[in-house]
Amino acid sequence: LGLLQTGAPLAGKHVLVNAGPTLEALDPVRFISNRSSGQQGYAIATALARLGARVTLVSGPTGLAAPAEVTRVDVESAREMLAACKAALPADVAVCVAAVADWRPDEVYGLKLKKGREGPPAITLVENPDILAELSASGPGRPKLVVGFAAETNDVEAHAVAKRQRKGCDWIVANDVTEPGVMGGGENAVLLITAAGTERWERAPKSEVAQRLALRIAQSL
Ligand code: CTP
Ligand code: CA
């Protein structure tokens, strides 16, 4: 039994992970989106499943293969991602790694917009729902641990600490996306912000960052 527990500390737990970009349609052939390879989120889903968790991975379009032993739900827009995340509840833990588009065009045209004499169309954007904030909101169905990510280009720790407060999540994993090789690359250098303070994790392959985070999640439950 001891071995079983160390091998599968997350057995019996359901973890919801979201990953990848969202895609916000303008018309049938155009969209706006965010840069995201999905690698870090997929690595986290994989690491959690290896520790025995039942994992639901709600994913925007990435082109990545679904990790083994993970249930993947494919979505495109932020609103679809929110609905799929809510439908996956209850979960013991939620890890929001997705690069959710902050805005979407206010109107989706049913037909392709054509070039015309009026010149380029003006696109009005409206704000998308905040999935992490909604999953963090207190209520009977709230996961015991909600983890968000923060991609920053400056003042990483200050922005991430403020983000943790604003979103109401328990932990924030923050990274500096101006570091070479992070966006779209294989490595990540992150800060883990919890109620207890800030931990600086040394730069490592995304798969190792994922394993370390999965172990921390297992310890905290
Ligand atoms: N997030 C989300 N829904 C959104 C926007 C962000 O769930 N509409 C989540 C991301 O998945 C991530 C965290 O919130 O876990 C932080 O995302 P980030 O873009 O860094 O923060 P924002 O609150 O959108 O603030 P800003 O982009 O202005 O820095
Ligand atoms: Ca954002």
Automatic annotation (TrEMBL):
Region (Phosphopantothenate--cysteine ligase): 15-221
Pathway: Cofactor biosynthesis; coenzyme A biosynthesis; CoA from (R)-pantothenate: step 2/5; Cofactor biosynthesis; coenzyme A biosynthesis; CoA from (R)-pantothenate: step 3/5
Keyword Ribosomal protein: no
Superkingdom of origin organism: Bacteria
EC number: 4.1.1.36, 6.3.2.5
Record has Magnesium as a keyword: yes
Cofactor-binding details, from the entry: Binds 1 FMN per subunit.
Keywords from the named record: Decarboxylase, Flavoprotein, FMN, Ligase, Lyase, Magnesium, Metal-binding, Multifunctional enzyme
Domain DNA/pantothenate metabolism flavoprotein C-terminal residues, every copy: 10-219
Any one GO molecular function term: phosphopantothenate--cysteine ligase activity
Residue positions binding CTP: 102, 112, 129-132, 149, 163, 167
Cofactor names: FMN; Mg(2+)
Reactions the enzyme catalyzes: N-[(R)-4-phosphopantothenoyl]-L-cysteine + H(+) = (R)-4'-phosphopantetheine + CO2; (R)-4'-phosphopantothenate + L-cysteine + CTP = N-[(R)-4-phosphopantothenoyl]-L-cysteine + CMP + diphosphate + H(+)
Family, per entry: In the N-terminal section; belongs to the HFCD (homo-oligomeric flavin containing Cys decarboxylase) superfamily.
Function: Catalyzes two sequential steps in the biosynthesis of coenzyme A. In the first step cysteine is conjugated to 4'-phosphopantothenate to form 4-phosphopantothenoylcysteine. In the second step the latter compound is decarboxylated to form 4'-phosphopantotheine. Catalyzes two steps in the biosynthesis of coenzyme A. In the first step cysteine is conjugated to 4'-phosphopantothenate to form 4-phosphopantothenoylcysteine, in the latter compound is decarboxylated to form 4'-phosphopantotheine.
Name used for this protein in its record: Coenzyme A biosynthesis bifunctional protein CoaBC
Species for this entry: Caulobacter ginsengisoli
Lineage per the UniProt record: Bacteria, Pseudomonadati, Pseudomonadota, Alphaproteobacteria, Caulobacterales
Positions spanned in the full protein: 175 to 395 of 395
